[in-house]
Input
Amino acid sequence: MIEIKDVSLEFGKKRILKKISLELENGVYGILGPNGAGKTTLLRCIAGLYEHYTGEILIHEKNMKPGKARLGYLPQKFSIYQDLRIKDNMQYFAALKGIPKSEREEKIQDCLKAVHMEEYENYKGNQLSGGMLRRIGIAQAMLDNPEILLLDEPTVGLDPEERIHFKEIISGLRDDMVVLMSTHIVEDIEACCRKILVMNSGTICFVGSGDALRELALGKVFEVTRENYAKEEGLYVEKEYEKETGVVKRILTGNECSYEAVRPTIEDGYLCVIKKI
Output
């Protein structure tokens, strides 16, 4: 379990995190938020990469530095040695984590199998696709059986097929650790995470299930054809797309509306939180 108590962090005069408090049990959590919300900074604090924050981060009720916990971390910008084979790169990561030589080979094979990359262990780094590289990133993060797994924008740059592979990997992770995944892709959160955190401007705005987030937009989402749509004050246009009946505008508003209400999505709930509708 991770317990975060009143954690704040500043860079110069800019306050990035503002008195964040959270309790995270075992399971997969997703952090949604716009760019600059503080998602990456929060993950780096938990990982022990930033230590100049105020407040406390407790792991299993112990006031210890996060970097001392058994923890796996996949940063948004992850790379490996291009001229080395995958298995040699994994040996390097295992050595950095202090895994005894006698245990490295077995643990490396287990992690490569978990991400479906065991058949590529002799490939060099420069032969990997973006999706393969992200899978190796997850494999190195899982070395040494972490209690906490932190994934920062893990699906950035992946094509649809590679994102499907990623979701399968996350769904197959052990259920005895805390997995915290930051992203701005709502679909990935909905597919992988049991609970959702919404961050904005350095604060936590929402913690709950996908259904609870969706319910925040009940009665606030409407669809209307272009012919009947008038730009009324207070309406927020969320997206525009094609239907059999013609072009339809999808709008989100907290005001009274005479248009047809529709079932909201998690993205609608997220927008309600971010835009305070």
Q: What stands out?
A: The longest helix spans residues 101-114.
